[in-house]
């Protein structure tokens, strides 16, 4: 998965902290290969992460991985990522699945869409010499 430079820097710093934890844990360290682990290298369980949240996330009934996928897709679209790119990021065979299942419209995105649509209509009317009356 493509990552931006800042995320790569954060992950490198995280890995360096893990290496220090590994040295401190000594023989207790379990080299699980996971990015996010306990202090002795065991992979973090999703229910552990859910239990440490403030109680508002993930929403009841939403598995952590599903919520993360949905959030990633929604944020990517809010950043104006093309839906086809989001489909590829999520590994979906169909863009319909991506749009129908994982993508919700953030209010900011909906307002921006309304502004841009109005701008196009007003520009087209102006180009035709038919300004819209108030």
Would you kindly provide a written description of the structure presented here, covering whatever features stand out?
This protein is an all-alpha fold. It has a domain at 1-44. The chain has 6 helices and no strands. The protein has helices at 5-25, 46-52, 64-78, 83-90, 95-102, 107-127. Helix 3 packs antiparallel against helix 4 and helix 4 packs across helix 5 (95-102). It is elongated.
Features:
134 residues, 0% strand
Characterize this entry briefly.
This protein has 134 residues and is mostly helical. It has six helices and no strands.
Unreliable segments (pLDDT under 50, ≥5 consecutive)?
none
Shape: elongated
The tally of helices reads: 6
Overall SS class = mainly alpha
CA-CA gap between termini: 49 Å
What is the percentage of strand-forming residues? under 5%
Largest sheet: none
Mean pLDDT: 85
> Rg from C-alpha positions?
22 Å
Question: What series of H and E elements makes up the topology?
Answer: HHHHHH
Work out the number of β strands.
0
Helical fraction = 55-70%
What layout of secondary structure does this protein have?
Elements: H1 5-25, H2 46-52, H3 64-78, H4 83-90, H5 95-102, H6 107-127
């Amino acid at each position: 998965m493509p990552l931006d430079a800042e995320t790569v820097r954060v992950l490198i710093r995280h890995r360096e902290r893990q290496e220090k934890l590994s040295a401190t844990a000594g023989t207790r360290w379990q080299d699980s290969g996971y990015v996010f682990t306990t202090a002795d290298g065991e992979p973090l369980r999703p229910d552990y992460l859910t239990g440490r949240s403030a109680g508002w996330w993930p929403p009841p009934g939403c598995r952590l991985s599903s919520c993360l996928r949905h959030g990633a897709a929604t944020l990517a679209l809010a950043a104006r990522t093309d839906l086809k790119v989001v489909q590829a990021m999520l590994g979906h065979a169909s863009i319909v699945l991506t749009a129908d299942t994982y993508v919700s419209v953030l209010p900011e995105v909906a307002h921006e869409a309304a502004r841009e649509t109005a701008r196009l209509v007003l520009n087209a009317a102006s180009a035709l010499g038919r300004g819209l009356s108030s």
